[in-house]
Amino acid sequence: MQTLLSLKGHLVPMLPGKTAMLLGLILLIQAVVVPQVAISSEVPTLPAASQIYVNGTVTNNTGGFPVAGANVSFFNYSTGAYVGSALTNASGFYNITLDAGVYNISAAAADHYTAWERNINLSANGTRDMIIFEIPGRMEGTVDDSVHPVAGAVVNITYIPVNQTVPVVLSAATGADGSFSLENITAGSYTIDISVEGYPPEQRSVKISWNRTTVTTVHLSGAELTGVVKDDSGTPMEADISVDNGTAWFNTTSGPDGGYSISGLRAGDYNISAVKTGYVAYRSSTSIAAGERAWENCTLMGGSIAGNITDDAGRPINGAAVRLLSSGTEVFSTTSDAAGSFGMMSIPTGDYVLSASMTGYLSVSENVHVAAGHTTYLDVALTGGALKGLISDDAGRLVSGALVELLGSDYSSNSNNSGNYTLSGVPEGDYYVKASKDGYLTSITESPVHISPGALVFHNFTLRGGTLTGTVDNGTSELGGVNVTLILTTGENLTATTDPSGRYIIKGIPAGVYAVTARLEGYHNSTVGGVVITAGETTALDLTMDELQGSISGNVRSSTGPVEGARVWVSITDGIRFAYTDAAGNYTITDVPAGIYNVTAEKDGYYPDYVAGVTVTRGAVVSDVNFTLEGKLSRLSGVVSNGTYPIVGVNIEILELKYSTETDPYGRYVMENIPPGTYTVVATKRGYQANATYGVVISMGEVMELNFTLEEIPGIVWGYVRDADGKPIVQATVEIAGEAYTTTTDINGYYKLAGVTPGIYALRIYKSGYETSVISGVNITTEYENHVDVTLQPAGGGDNGDEWSLIPGMDMVHSFMVIGLIIVLSLMFISILYIYRHGKKFSETRFMNMLKQMAEGEEAEETTADSEGAEDEENSEGPPEEGREGEKAEEKEPVKKRLRKKKLKKR
To answer: If you placed Cys at 533, which of 27, 466, 679, 718 could pair as Cys (CB 3.0 to 4.6 Å)?
Structure first.
């Protein structure tokens, strides 16, 4: 605007009033239309990076070896929310990108305890190594003597605990079943020692693994008992040999040569018996030392009768009368004992009749021959009554293992797998019968059942168990055809299938606590444990089943090979499902509901890629959903300052690439399209100490910020360059005349020349559109007080040749103003030509009427204006006098006259 007013002050007085008025209007339009250049003094704010890179190595506590496949997870410290995780590679190394913040970190791997680090502040790229501990192994097993379990045996193992040097002895004693267990053992190969009184000590070699159970069985050799069995004539014979110490029994049979041997005996006192049908049993006792081989020969005597009296169900009958008759005369008599056994010794050789009888049973008589030197065995079964029947539950299923008892007696039986029971050999009488089984309500006959000798009575029982009922749905609707299964402790499955409304019912369930499972194709099994069933009651249990999910798998590659650590994800209704690629670029996303998805692969440093229309079905894996990622080039930027103010014109160079640039007035620089690598970046400017940053790692697609602070070299002059209104002048050149020291002003008009050899110099300051200023006698010292401010005056249209201009001699602003004036004049000429051709008078147009009204106020001042114009001509630097005389002659000709002449010419 100031330039416009200046131009008006020079040109308007030289023109006639109306012409001056027209030109003034045009200049006013030009001032409004032509945009003005505005310079902002605000320094832009640089974006701050918010993401960091965290990596590290996971090792174990037994030697610090790397742990592959460990899952390192990060959780928000404040909320506990899961943030992200990474798997370690074969070297135990992991890498993850996170937002800066405070985290809880866990590391977990197979056969290891989970390790935690809590309240970890991650504010910058860094390394977090983790140590995880192996889960010790254990050992269990049994100790026996090859026949029976050995209780009280001491099992010792000696090992060295983790991170210790002193061996530790771990001991355990076997229980009644001969079993033992040892816990928390360091992995390795060991020798265990087994010792117990009565057996020689034993050793076994075992191998213990981390988080595994090693099972071993130890058979103790023990002592041995051997001998020969003969009859009373000295002839070897086969016989049944029984050896016991009151708690353990060992049985064998002598061979045809009469020899027998029993091994694995514990040291102690033993009872020995040798038995053969028709012979008197041989009984003896002996003491056997640990590991000893003892001898015991047996001789069996004949001439006796022995046997058992049982009912027809095989139960022994106590107190039955046994008589031996010869020709109808009783010779010997005895009664059966509690085991139903009887015996008659020293019986002469002959044929006899053996009679057995008991109240309530049919009597039995048997012929028997007694041979000298032999014992004749005769078992006699007395026939009683019988009770038989079937036991089922309230669902009609047969019940096995139910106990049927005759109340008031010791007669009982259990139902078999077919639910049948039989009580045989029952003495005659009237009995109440009870059927019972754990988990069912007991059933007792309402009236006594009469049982007669030799008679068969039938009676069935129904045992009532618990009932389980409910519905099965998928969370929104009921499911029909679902198989609902309850597994009994016997291993038997009780099942039911839901009807179309999703309802099921299972009856006759024994009381107890069970797990119930619902199964249906296309759904995950739904299992509920701890279901309490009470006999005679109904338990309600509703089940919900989740649909099976699908999976998506494939590979992610770039132009250089597999891409490891790429994140592949799909969006589902309740969030996203994602997976990271392994070293081969492979991934698998699991738990994806059935549907059609767009699958996206992405990784920092690469442009993302996606595959549309991937159809996932329940329980199926969609494979070969592959991606090719295109890598991004990297960028390096930053700000160079002296610690307070930015420095303009600093040379930034990447030495290895020979890439270089300079900082702008804000002290900022940018380098684009940098290939990945490790570089040295150097910042240099005359008057400042050079600053280099080594080992700058630039990754694929990374936008990296690298700032520099330069330290000034002594010998400084500084100040501000402003215009006549006190406004800062940007990009003004400040130099020391005759020297190589030069700089330009920043957005605040500030300049500084540093590193100047102390002395007295002349400063030259210039910028297009301003008069060049030279300041002599500037004393530059090593102190910071060398302060020189400069005010530049407008150049009045001159051009010092330091900036490019559209019109020589003018700066860009004035050049645009003159061009705008030419455009306006051209438009006015076209308008006049248009009016003329269409039969209108230019003097009658609105444009000329407006000019006439403006000119009426100026006619009185034309004479004064002409004289003032003559004075301006004498005082201003203008074109040669000859040219100006022509302009004055033209100004004296009235406007209307000139227009009239133009019309005559056109005619």
So the answer is: 466
